[in-house]
Amino acid sequence: MSKRASPDDRRRDLIAATVRVLAERGAAGASVRTIAAAAGVSPGLVTHHFGGVDRLVAASYDHIAAQVAAALETAVAGAGPAPRARLGAYVAANFTAPIADPALLATWLALWSLARGDAAMLARHEQHYAAFRARLEDLLGACGVAAERLRLTAIGVTALVDGLWLELCLSPDSFSADEARRIAADYLAGL
Amino acid sequence: MSKRASPDDRRRDLIAATVRVLAERGAAGASVRTIAAAAGVSPGLVTHHFGGVDRLVAASYDHIAAQVAAALETAVAGAGPAPRARLGAYVAANFTAPIADPALLATWLALWSLARGDAAMLARHEQHYAAFRARLEDLLGACGVAAERLRLTAIGVTALVDGLWLELCLSPDSFSADEARRIAADYLAGL
DNA sequence: GTGCTTGTTGCACGAACGTATAACGAGGTG
DNA sequence: CACCTCGTTATACGTTCGTGCAACAAGCAC
């Protein structure tokens, strides 16, 4: 019983509902009916606007990846010209709103599990992580990290950030986002 | 069409089949019928021996967690008495067979996604990670890490190891297990 | 050999899944 | 106002899910 909306708005609503459902009920609960109910529309709309639930999930992945990348870029832009500050801001932003939001972390984890076994989703993941690492290598290079150590260093930073994300999502009582930010900062300081 | 077997053997077979299916088809493919087919038995046996697929998955989680903990403990025991060597062995073992096995990493990732939304599975995860961190704090303390920095340091090491695991599983072409071991060793050396 | 225990199977059942499709109705254009 | 476009709903269909249940058969006690 929802009002008529423009295709763009409706697509946005459905993606937002997918993200919400993924965060609250995990990958197993991301059915067409559940998502449609969360968006307040009928299940048929998913097929109508996306052609299938798989493509809706893929669109949700793209949306979140773009949102995360934009938040990181905003943090870098606001850090001023100093290379170390820009690198620190890029990493610390991963533990600051809106990225540090536990619901977003839960959504990302559910998408990871859905990515396994789906070639298109795996390619999306690969592309997003390659972009993340490339940006990291860029910022690390500006801080004077030797070119031959650039790749491994970027992988290590990415892994640390991902691991802190994961534990923050699965065991939110073990430590705080502030502590995660501090662990990452110490790691960068040690390079 | 399987021969009669003892309950213990059959339970072991079913757990092994669950781990295999989880690794090959992800969390979405872990249905009773798929698991039973992988074990070469009828679907009804899952209910008969475990009382439901949820408890079979939980038992698989326990089995893997115990297997990983045992492999880590073996590595520590084989490292001699020096505290630094013991710590290094404990961390490096995470990227050595049998833990470094990509299939095991895939299984673990699938179990993580299944753990979300299930209170019993979340409790299992919490318990396993608490044990992992406690052992890590023990080894770090023996190396002279200050008591007040122990908790945060252990969280950071755990996060780095988990992140390297994850990326190794999702993007196996990005870097090798050897490189992961080296990144972790460098991190420990910087403490 | 006879009978009992119990591992094992095959089937059936209800529920939930994804999606195709026809009918409905709101909103813009003539 | 009439008409058409298209977003939306409701329904239906086939598949797959988890699991309960009755029947079968293998191994053991006697």
From TrEMBL, chains A, B:
Q: Which UniProt keywords apply?
A: DNA-binding, Repressor, Transcription, Transcription regulation
* Domain (HTH tetR-type) ranges: 8-68
Q: Which ranges does the entry annotate as DNA-binding region?
A: 31-50
Taxonomy, superkingdom: Bacteria
The answer to whether the entry has keyword DNA-binding is: yes
Tell me one Pfam family matched here: TetR_N
Its name, as the record gives it, is AcrR family transcriptional regulator
The record lists the organism as Sphingomonas endophytica
